[in-house]
Predict the structure.
Amino acid sequence: MQDAYARALSSWRDSGVPTRPAAWLTTTARNRALDLIRRDALFRRAMPELVMDDVAPPAEYLGDADGDLPDDRLRLICTCCHPALAVEAQVALTLRLLCGLSTADVARAFLVSEPTMAARRARSDASVLTDATTVATCRPCCTRGRA
């Protein structure tokens, strides 16, 4: 009902008060409730696609027996956490590069179209590459204690 009152404030200011304001508020509240029910149903249908399968990661993702990650993997982690990237871009890059999800899977996780996610990824790649810090270098704190 609050949404109906909020819409009434903005709508009635422009078009004036309707002849039957109570009916207008009731109809608006009902339509908003239906929208929320549809949105919840869509979310429930999409949720199984967002949940990862219970599949063990490949051995190369786990590192060696000591738990050390290969240097290339460490560079990827640093790249994904690059300060030149927005948090959303960091998450998308991490899902794509470190978790091995396809662009389509990442797009579904963000509830956007695949071309939109591909464009975002291209912009974030360009952002990191044009930054003064190169992708190949990792901060010293990340490599501390490594041979």
